[in-house]
Amino acid sequence: MDLTQRVLEQFVVLAEERHFGRAAERLSMSQPPLSQAVQRLERRLGVTLLERSTRTVRLTPAGDAFAHDARHLLEAQNAAVERARRIAHGTEGELHLGFISGLAYTFLPGVLRLSRAHLPDLRIHLHQHSSAELVSRVRSGTIDLAFVRGPLADTDALTLRAIEGERLCVALPATHPLADREQLRLADLAHEDVALPSLTALAGLAEQVVTACRAEGFAPRDAARADSLSGLLSHVAAGHCVCLVPEQVRSGALPGVTFRSLADTDTSGHLTLSVLAATRAGHDDPAVRRILGLLAVRNPEG
Q1: In the CATH hierarchy, which fold is given to the domain comprising 94-163+276-298?
Q2: How many CA atoms lie within 13 A of 250 on its CB side?
Q3: What is the pLDDT of residue 63?
Q4: Quick one: pLDDT at residue 268?
Q5: Which parts of the chain sit beneath pLDDT 70?
């Protein structure tokens, strides 16, 4: 006889009721099968669990101890079943989430706050890499979900979902003459030295910056390069150039750097960056679905 969940439930209920009739009623069974089940349990364990009389049931010391442990076993079983269900539904477990450095300022903390509020038992491991490295890791399965900027050069074996758009802004030295203006036009940078993003590490941003400038009729003057947003801002803080960066970078500004928004023009569509969620094509992960669902509620137009 195995110690099944049903057998444990029967004995625990009997231990609580101390009466075969009432215990059988709670268990939705008749009294004789319950009595027989307890007798088989005693034979299986080789101990006496109950002292029986015509009116009452009394637990032996062994029976009292077994009832206590049986309750814990049932609680552990129920917890294991519930935990498996939560994991299957994406509310518990571990998620490996990748992100590019430019999303660490406001976007990523927002994602983590949403997860913490709605999925408190989901443990998220963070991995920061370039977009190219992130999508490679998504394809290999070592990262479950990655937030990158579009456009991506290679989308093979990926499922991409647009999450939100973010405008570019101008970062310039605080002492720069253009810093006196409340707002700038992109064309105002036509004769400025510009720190440009790396074509490999920041490929999406690099393409967006060049495309936006060309749409305004000029090519940016390549004065410096950096493979991170902090590197671009360091060039600006040194006082010898300006750069274009995502708006959220404002919250992580270096001393000596000021930011100005860009006025709308006929080509303003080139000033908006796309934040994309990248997952492995054909791979359904309940936790990823829940994270993306929360973001969709937050950004219904994303």
Answers
A1: D-Maltodextrin-Binding Protein; domain 2 (3.40.190)
A2: 11
A3: 92
A4: 67
A5: 1, 54-55, 267-268, 299-302
Cα(237)–Cα(99) distance, integer angstroms:
25
Dihedral sign for Cα 214, 218, 224, 229, please.
Answer: negative
Common-topology check for domains 5-88 and 94-163+276-298? no
Asked if 131 contacts 148 with a C-beta cutoff of 8 angstroms, the reply is yes
Instruction: Give the model's pLDDT for residue 1.
Output: 53
Amino acid at position 290, single letter: R
Instruction: Round to whole Å and give the CA distance between 180 and 265.
Output: 21
Q: How many CB atoms lie within 10 A of CB 176?
A: 19
Dihedral (C-alpha) 213, 216, 218, 219: value to the nearest 10 degrees?
10
pTM: 0.73
Structure-token pair, residue 153: 């050069």
C-alpha distances out from residue 50 to 47, 65, 80, 236, Å? 9, 12, 30, 82
State which fold the 164-273 domain adopts: D-Maltodextrin-Binding Protein; domain 2 (3.40.190)
Would you give the DSSP letter of residue 34? H
Cβ of 182: how many Cβ atoms within 10 Å?
7
What's the CATH number of domain 5-88, 1.10.10.10, 3.30.70.100, 3.40.605.10, 1.20.1250.40? 1.10.10.10
Q: Which two tokens stand for residue 240?
A: 């010898």
In 141-240, which residue ranges form alpha helices assigned H by DSSP? 203-215, 229-237
Asked, as a colleague might, if the bond just before 32 is cis with ω within 30 of 0, I would say no
Amino acid 271: pLDDT? 87
Q: Which residues of 94-122 are buried (b: 16+ CB within 10 A; e: fewer)?
A: ebbbbbbbbbbbebbeebeebbeeebeeb
Indicate left, alpha or beta for 141 from its phi (over 0: left) and psi (-120 to 50: alpha).
Answer: left
Q: Give me the pLDDT at residue 184, please.
A: 95
The two three-digit tokens of residue 85, written as one number:
């269900």
Q: Which of 241, 245, 213 is nearest to 230 (CA)?
A: 245
Q: Where are the alpha helices (DSSP H) in 89-168?
A: 107-118, 131-140
